[in-house]
Amino acid sequence: MNNFEFKNPTKIIFGKDTIAKLAKEIPTDAKVLVLYGGGSIKKNGIYEQVQSALKDIDYVEFGGIPANPEYTVLLEALQVIKNENISYLLAVGGGSVIDGTKFLSAAALFEGDTPWDILSNRKPTLKGMPFGTVLTLPATGSEMNSGAVITRAETKEKLGMGGAGLFPQFSILDPQVIKSIPKRQLVNGITDAFTHVLEQYMTYPAGALLQDRFAESIMQTLIEVAPKILKDPTDYEAASNFMWSCTMALNGLIQKGVPTDWAVHAMGHELTALYGIDHARTLAIIAPSHYQYNFDTKKEKLAQYAERIWNITEGSLEDKAYDAIERTEQFFNQMGIDTKLSKYTENFDGTAEVISKRFTERGWVGLGEHQSLKPEDVEHIVQMAY
Amino acid sequence: MNNFEFKNPTKIIFGKDTIAKLAKEIPTDAKVLVLYGGGSIKKNGIYEQVQSALKDIDYVEFGGIPANPEYTVLLEALQVIKNENISYLLAVGGGSVIDGTKFLSAAALFEGDTPWDILSNRKPTLKGMPFGTVLTLPATGSEMNSGAVITRAETKEKLGMGGAGLFPQFSILDPQVIKSIPKRQLVNGITDAFTHVLEQYMTYPAGALLQDRFAESIMQTLIEVAPKILKDPTDYEAASNFMWSCTMALNGLIQKGVPTDWAVHAMGHELTALYGIDHARTLAIIAPSHYQYNFDTKKEKLAQYAERIWNITEGSLEDKAYDAIERTEQFFNQMGIDTKLSKYTENFDGTAEVISKRFTERGWVGLGEHQSLKPEDVEHIVQMAY
Fold first, then answer.
1. Is the ipTM of this complex over 0.90?
2. Which of A109, A169, A294, A362 is the most buried (most CB within 10 A)?
3. From the CA of A115, how many Å to the nearest CA of chain B?
4. Which residues in chain A have Cβ-Cβ distances shorter than 8 Å to B257?
């Protein structure tokens, strides 16, 4: 097991009818900016629940944060924060709204030249404006971590940011929100969370027996509940386990003491930036090719995953490892997720070269758990995913 | 899954040679009281590591906190805190030293008549004097939770306390400390952590699929590493997984959203208070009888545990459940832990009646996940454990 540090101070309020507990978590003298996305919360009753909970709180609203939170839209919200003397942020939404809120939390207190520096400098944010979240879409785990990914359409960039100052003070997780989520987004959420676990697990054995089992527990649970949720999103048992699994998949715990990969995300982000493909689907496109390309360095963990997750007990270590990649792809496919880039865009020619060139230009030191993947490896992997 | 709230702000610093990181976590203007136990830290090198880390910090020491931290000893330490204007506490030890430090953290800021009220009132402590810990004995999980158990020899009482104000600010976990722990205490630690998981798991199915798997992950890991640690406590992989499993067994995570029992602890505490039996061993004495006595209300989870932990796949649900109790007892026995009270004291006659009477006198509403166990049930269970 590798040395690690772990601290996650976010307060989770989980369960039925918990949105009403909102006001107790916000300082009474706060001036709050409530942030949300495309307005679905106004159709599914969540908006009314938030309004009712905030009835004694001074707040203004900013809606319209798009999926893959867009920098220019966030700059408008930043202006509202300054004009209205906002002191507390409340994200009501999924990963995009929460990620956008994290950027605003950092930007509100940022003292540099331009808020874009927060993203381009890659320096951790140690202090942000305090914020809480009401999660409406389980997927990214952003509700209990300190990271965010922001998109800038102008330059087709999608960059990460974060730091110890960007944990939500609280997050309210009511699994009842799941019943009004479109199936496409449910499938994305399951795929996203599952791939988050893979990124922190599918590396090489590091003697972290407990972390491996925790990671496997999340994957087993997602596989168990996925068909139930897709069949009946009002199934509360399935919904609550799905929601808590998504949070636990990326709240820092399972990555502690182990090597992590994240190359699938790095490549996937580029596919979203270039073609607007849903984040989760970009991960499903890249992951199988990535594991095939890096088979030799990952085969021990692939085989362990084969045995413990897919009950594959026959054959050599390599056989099991290959089977496990195939089963993963089938899992995505069975939920209706295509795992080839060509199914999403006709103009995929040259994608691998473009992404590889971008990585070269950014001067990255190497992707993957060994930081050994070079732009030319990325080119191969993306090509395999065509 | 039941509704729950979860917040655990303790910073964990885990791994080889991490004690040197101590000073960075303590405010430079703090006046620190370093608390420790019987002095084993002066023999195994931990004391020197702490001294060296604190070389630029203003501190005084208080040693001699006994196992089952004794109220009257802690009152002496409280006097030192007041006389020396202490502003920060540092526990260097196992669960007893850390629990004692939590009591002092609360008592240092307590405004009632007598510090004993902290224990007798059973009110949560919302603010304590800040403290950190250096864990020298994995077992209780006290290094990452806000609870403590304090003993008062005078009245043969052992009572719990805690509250959101009593999380350690940081805890340093260096698995290398394990190599100098006597085998008896290693065995106690494994048993203690294992029983902690059982108390939060062996109830009835509540649809918390992920929490069940996390609990099972900890038990599987403890079973896997136990023989390795007992054979070779310098086995770092085994030691690190043992240490992290003990912490995760009682940091609040696996109890969220599920019913919990804790009757084994309630009865076990009395055996320690009456006969001075090691805490962990009292749990191993009570647990098998408790599960037999409450077989009907626990058999579904016992059978799940049988299948997933002990690979018992043959027989009826009841058969598996019974086998699982037997395997648990064997697990303790194989580590050298006796599971009958009569192996610890010759004067066990009447113990069940004494404990039952104490519970009646305290006016307890009922033990167990259904709060349904009455003093007469306790009497039966303790008798079965003779």
1. yes
2. A294
3. 29
4. 14-15, 240, 244
